[in-house]
Specification:
The protein is an alpha/beta fold and 349 residues long. The protein has eleven helices and 17 strands. α5 links the parallel β8 and β9. α3 crosses α10. The longest helix has 19 residues. The N and C termini lie close together (6 Å). Bound molecules: nicotinamide-adenine-dinucleotide (NAD).
Length: 349
């Protein structure tokens, strides 16, 4: 008979199904708003974190990345891929899972799906940035790229920033139809548009969230008027950008972690000394965010490990009392810590 695993070594695991139940239990807009607050709280203590650009393994088709960080008490990492061509085979462009561990023992304390959680945390981060950078009272957002992330981005901007209208565009009209259908009844006024140019009409916030492994021009310089906030999500890998570089010459650009964003973000197109402001400094008041009505602000989002850390610790706290997890026996933990071999032998009796 197999040895019964010791209780303390069981690791809570949140499956995709349980993550979806947790989102519905909390309510998606509440969860997005709470995630934005948790991420903001961790950005306030930015200097405590161990930070490193994510470790990326590139191929012609896409990228596989590991994203680690720690605040000294808790360690986290996420495994995530980005494969724009997956969609044509019926697969997700982005999938992920992640882990939290106690720094004091190194033992994992949570393992969870993170495909859903990444969409939620990316949207919450966008909304947190927009809360500090978008024009006050912004009510309309253009959403260019209507794939897997789109509805999450729209609902986070509604819940956190208060947008009321969303203008959709995707090169594939079926993607726009899907997003419009999914958002129907959520309280946003939805307009499906037939070009990016049409989508950005009257929008104070422009979100670009397309997937293509190339230097794309989703927005060109003449399309971007004074005073808008651009939330650029899709350019997050070397050789994969969405904005014409001339837009960056007119914008004040805000980033998560410069050593990572200079390689992966829109600013990979710029000289190494192109000025950027770290978002955490805006949040702590050390740097200015939006200064005036005409300024173009650009959040050059690539996704950073601290956001995943925040999302993981939020899920761990919110799991309490829900039962929405399974205990996983993934840590060998013999009663006598030196008797790992004995544990193996006893498993054969
Ligand atoms: P997805 O493949 O589900 O959707 C992408 C959509 O973009 C598709 O509907 C596609 O038709 C559309 N598109 C492609 N080229 C376009 C163009 N020129 N104009 C308009 N639409 C176009 O991908 P997703 O999961 O929604 O992710 C979108 C992007 O966001 C990816 O590039 C992904 O790597 C990135 N991403 C970034 C973060 C971050 O933290 N910054 C997090 C998650 C995903």
């Amino acid at each position: 008979m197999l040895q019964a695993p010791s209780q303390k070594a069981l690791v809570p695991f949140v499956s995709v199904e349980n993550m979806m139940r947790l989102v519905h239990l909390i309510g998606i807009e509440t969860m997005l708003a709470e995630l934005a607050d948790v991420i903001e709280a961790d950005f306030r203590r930015w200097q405590l974190f161990d930070k490193t650009p994510r470790v990326a393994s590139h191929s012609r088709e896409g990228v596989i990345e590991l994203m680690p960080t720690s605040d000294g008490d808790i360690y986290s990492f996420k495994y995530v891929n980005g494969h724009p061509k997956n969609m044509a085979q019926g697969l997700q462009t982005v999938t992920a899972f992640g882990l939290l561990a106690e720094v004091s023992t190194g033992y994992p304390v949570l393992l969870t799906e993170m495909t859903m959680l990444t969409a939620l945390r990316t949207a919450a981060t966008s909304a947190m940035a927009a809360r500090h950078l978008a024009p006050k009272g912004a009510k309309t957002m253009a959403m260019i790229g209507n794939g897997a992330q789109a509805e999450f981005q729209a609902l986070a901007m509604k819940a956190v920033v208060g947008i009321e209208r969303i203008r959709l565009y995707d090169i594939d009209p079926k993607a726009t139809e899907k997003t419009a259908r999914n958002l129907a009844g959520c309280g946003l006024t939805i307009t499906a548009c037939t070009s990016s140019q049409a989508a950005i009409e009257g929008a104070e916030i422009i979100t670009t969230c397309t997937a293509d492994k190339q230097y794309a021009t989703i927005l060109s310089d003449n399309m971007v008027g004074a005073g808008v906030h651009i939330n650029a999500i899709g350019g997050d890998c070397p050789g994969k950008t969405e904005l014409h570089r001339d837009i960056l010459l007119r914008s004040d650009t805000f980033v998560e972690y410069p050593p990572q964003t200079r390689v992966e973000g829109e600013i990979q197109q710029m000289d190494p000394d192109y000025p950027v402001t770290e978002l955490w400094k805006v949040i702590t008041g050390e740097a200015a965010g939006r200064r005036d009505r005409n300024q173009i602000t650009l959040f050059d989002s690539v996704g950073f490990a601290v956001e995943d850390f925040s999302a993981l610790r939020y899920v761990r706290d919110r799991l309490n009392g829900t039962g929405l997890y399974q205990d996983l026996d993934i840590i060998a933990d013999p009663d006598d810590p030196r008797d790992l071999f004995g544990m193996l032998q006893r498993a054969n009796t």
